[in-house]
Amino acid sequence: xxxxxxxxxxxxxxxxxxxxxxxxxxxxxxxxxxxxxxxxxxxxxxxxxxxxxxxxxxxxxxxxxxxxxxxxxxxxxxxxxxxxxxxxxxxxxxxxxxxxxxxxxxxxxxxxxxxxxxxxxxxxxxxxxxxxxxxxxxxxxxxxxxxxxxxxxxxxxxxxxxxxxxxxxxxxxxxxxxxxxxxxxxxxxxxxxxxxxxxxxxxxxxxxxxxxxxxxxxxxxxxxxxxxxxxxxxxxxxxxxxxxxxxxxxxxxxxxxxxxxxxxxxxxxxxxxxxxxxxxxxxxxxxxxxxxxxxxxxxxxxxxxxxxxxxxxxxxxxxxxxxxxxxxxxx
Length: 331
Known about the structure:
Blueprint: H1 2-29, H2 35-38, H3 42-60, H4 64-79, E1 108-114, H5 124-128, E2 134-138, H6 142-153, E3 158-162, E4 165-169, E5 172-177, E6 184-190, E7 196-203, H7 216-243, E8 251-256, H8 264-267, E9 274-275, H9 276-280, E10 298-302, E11 306-314, E12 323-330
Parallel strand pairs: 1-2, 7-8
Antiparallel strand pairs: 1-12, 2-4, 3-4, 5-6, 6-7, 8-10, 9-10, 11-12
Helix pairs in contact: 1-3, 1-4, 3-4
């Protein structure tokens, strides 16, 4: 019996090790054929691995289970997107109302929110409570974008609506670039001091939701779905580069990416952009689903011209997403 118990314990530890190797490979390399695996957060797979280790130690006293537990703990601390905010413990969070200056420097406040075509009600008041200077909205029809703009700025702001996207600002929109993709837009915002900021608002290809991992069709769906999203984002980036002096122009690039923050889709922006929440965020950053957010798919990126100093995700009852707030100062 002791031999059998020992073998079972070793088997559980071995399974945990194999799961760890697969998890590290998939999240580090992000191969498209394993897109279904990485659509779930790394800490969920880590939870399975830790469960195997705990079972091996509790029931079978397998000593190596303690080593694997430590390995998993380090992996999750390094690899989990949610753990990145630990580096921001000394940073302050943005507060509702007019954005406070940062060390005496004026702040540009940006918000992004998926409005779910107002199926959960009108989010205008929730957005207005934060007094943003620029707002990116997705899943909002043109008349709904106008409604938000009127509530925020009383008719004195500016906005552009395209299909189900909208950019709203208290300042002037100098031009709009027509993007060939359907749910993405690009505008140039002129700030009071004469600075021009390119604003790209994206709502990328909706995510695949098939989690029947025992079915090969699910793996194919996720692989194709990610490829479409990467291609769409590539087109948006190409339009930005062709129509501006990018990367010399200050640029905000945000919205609903329909991909977790550690997905390879976001790595396409890594060379030129900084993720505002990863750099300056506090609290729980995941944005979807509102009631139990486990994925950070709503993100605000910015070029080096704009330094993120504060960021927060905010729950609103009027969407199935959480809203992202980010404060920037000009470098």
